[in-house]
Specification:
By secondary structure, the chain is mainly β. The protein contains no helices and 34 strands. The protein folds into 3 domains: about 1-125; about 170-270, no CATH class; about 275-365, Immunoglobulin-like (Sandwich).
């Protein structure tokens, strides 16, 4: 009959490299390893586990220059702290339930087909990283509210976050790339960033989406265009969708929720939508007889409201088109001579694509007799 070993650890334990050789922690398949949540295990060398009773509720602190964490069975620990420079290679599936700290060093899950590396964080504390400490690979998380992903590729730090996750049971995996992605762009995106994108994977249920914040250092923003977040399916030259966006610190934060697997940063295209400010329906020159909006044909949907000087709606058009449009002219036969001479306010609400944010243009119009 096989015997088993039960190890109970309480408090602070340090495993270091001795003068006689390498100190590493190896947990055999028959070992039960139990700790309290207050236990801190500090090591500068490898941890190898083959026990399915590795019940480590404390925090493992990694201080070595280059270390290996490997487990032949899925393992759950309370906390993991990166505290030393260099790579921390990870093999097997590791779930962190309470705290995951990035102080110094890169956590690198293995991409090997056999015993590849996977790290899943399920704690409630929002993660944070630095340009010298992050995950070089895919980081998985479960939970709600803000889920920050301190990820990067190679020596490039490329974090992102979902800012309002409501599907707490869904596992979100994020991997960063310091290269661009080929997409088919909508009218309202001039180009995509050519030096970064993120790939998102989901499991465990339907992910209904969340607004996102994508990293772009402010020092690299030249102000030549409005930066927006973009998402798309993971297929060659997929149709990109503009989620809108604005710069907040070192991040582009989207207006709309993202739920597709490819995320990147785009430069929003400016379409000059201009409401002509003069209507002269009473003379016979056939000029400026009706309301005219420059480039209105480029909108996917719009609503135009004409208000009198007291703010009372006079006329509303849904999906307005110009009366002299050569392809799709407005045919509602509205008689502009019904308008009394004076000043009016025209409000245009529109979307350039079905999935882009609604924008608004307001213009004073004068009706002359």
């Amino acid at each position: 009959m096989k015997s088993s070993l039960r190890i109970l650890l309480v408090g602070f334990i340090a495993l270091t490299m001795s003068a006689n050789g390498l100190a590493q922690l190896t947990i055999g398949s028959t070992t039960e390893f139990v700790t309290s949540s207050s236990t801190v295990l500090t090591t500068n060398n490898a941890i190898r586990n083959s026990s399915n009773r590795f019940n480590f509720q404390g925090t493992i602190e990694l201080t070595g220059a280059n270390q290996l964490l490997t487990s032949s069975v899925p393992v759950t620990v309370g906390g993991l702290a990166l505290a030393g420079s260099g790579n921390k290679s990870l093999e097997g599936e590791w779930t962190i339930t309470r705290t995951l700290q990035f102080r110094q060093g890169i956590l690198a899950p293995s991409f090997a087909a056999v015993n590849g590396g996977k790290i899943v964080y399920t704690g409630t504390e929002t993660l944070s990283g630095t340009p010298s400490s992050y995950v070089n690979g895919t980081l998985y998380q479960r939970g709600t509210d803000i889920r920050f992903f301190p990820v990067g590729e190679g020596s490039t730090y490329l974090p992102m976050s979902f800012t309002n996750v409501i599907d707490g049971a869904v596992e979100l995996g994020v991997r960063a790339f310091n290269s661009g992605v080929s997409l088919t762009l909508p009218l309202d995106v001039a180009e995509v960033a050519n030096n970064r994108h993120w790939r998102v994977s989901t499991s465990g249920g339907e992910f209904r989406g969340s607004p996102v914040s994508l990293y772009v250092p402010r020092s690299s923003v030249d102000g030549s265009g409005q930066l927006v977040a973009v998402h798309a399916d993971d297929t060659p030259d997929a149709n990109a969708i503009n989620l809108g966006g604005g710069i907040i610190g070192d991040f582009v934060s989207s207006f709309l929720p993202a739920n597709k697997p490819i995320l990147t940063i785009g430069i929003g295209e400016r379409v000059d939508l201009r409401i002509f400010d003069l209507i002269t329906p009473f003379n016979a020159d056939n000029i400026n007889d009706q309301l005219h909006i420059l480039n209105i044909e480029y909108t996917a949907s719009n609503k135009v409201t004409l208000l009198d000087r007291w703010g009372v709606p006079v006329k509303t058009w849904n999906n307005f088109r110009n009366y002299d449009d050569p392809v799709e002219p407005n045919q509602d036969n509205f008689d502009f001579t019904r308008l009394s001479p004076g000043n009016y306010i025209c409000v245009l609400e529109y979307q350039l694509t079905p999935d882009s944010p609604t924008e608004k243009v307001t213009q004073m119009i004068t009706v002359l007799k």
